[in-house]
Amino acid sequence: MAYLQINGEELYSEVQGSGDPVLLLHGGFCSLESLQEQADSLADTYRVLAFERPGHGRSADIDGEYSYERGVAEALAYLDAQGLESAHVVGYSDGAIIGLLLARDHPHRLRSLVAISANLDPSAFDHALGRGNPPAVEPSTTEIAPGRDSEESGAGNGTDTNADPDAEVDAGLDAEIDIERARYDRLSPDGPEHADTVLGKLSRLWETEPRIDPAGLAEVSVPTLVMSGDHDVIRPDHSLLIASSIPEAQLCILPGATHGLVAERPGLISLVIRQFLAESGR
């Protein structure tokens, strides 16, 4: 556990294990604790490296707004600070978006990419709630409302329900934020009262970014695994769009999982990641 000077900021860093390097990139309003299960699972075979971006976990916030471009620059500077020319990258949510941008624009710095619950643009959230423009890839005509399994939704038993799927997704996101807020209150050097400032900046980021053209992902040349939950705020058809835009990418949709899938299905996620990394062979 240490702090490193990354692009002029003191950012919290953790390194464990030995072997080929794997860089973990956490999600928005998350600390490294959110990926601890994956870090522990990989550390017996790989050298697992991770850092907390400004305003997250134990890293102090910065003045001004956040951007994914800044996240890419921080990840590259972190690899440089660790003396690494390249690494496997496992990114979750915002970290997965940064991973996609790294793979597209800096492929020589990646050995492979696992992108968990990434989105290409803000409309993915509208799609998750059944609002906005139609998805780029048509979903199945048989759908289960986000946040509900087949039994709860009455599928196959003739039960009707008036539950609002949008409200259920919102409730799931609120619960996830509550968990991360408790961690923020405990870890942040800026104090609990600064959480609303961070959430405000993240909300503005998520409303405007990213803007990734699916056609541009054809330039990604590293082995790539795209993952998300079947009840994720990022709908499966959006994850399919990402995977189908990357040459030879693999797609894994986890059953019964929401956007909090790294906590809900840690063992399964770690198993899939380990197999993917072993097969990547880079």
From TrEMBL:
Domain AB hydrolase-1 stretches: 21-130
Region named Disordered: 128-169
Family annotation (InterPro entries): AB_hydrolase, AB_hydrolase_1, AB_hydrolase_fold, Epox_hydrolase-like
Pfam families: Abhydrolase_1
UniProt GO molecular function: hydrolase activity; peroxidase activity
Keywords recorded for this protein, A-Z: Hydrolase, Oxidoreductase, Peroxidase
SUPFAM superfamilies linked: alpha/beta-Hydrolases
PANTHER family, A to Z: BLL5160 PROTEIN, HYDROLASE, ALPHA/BETA FOLD FAMILY PROTEIN
Protein name: Alpha/beta hydrolase
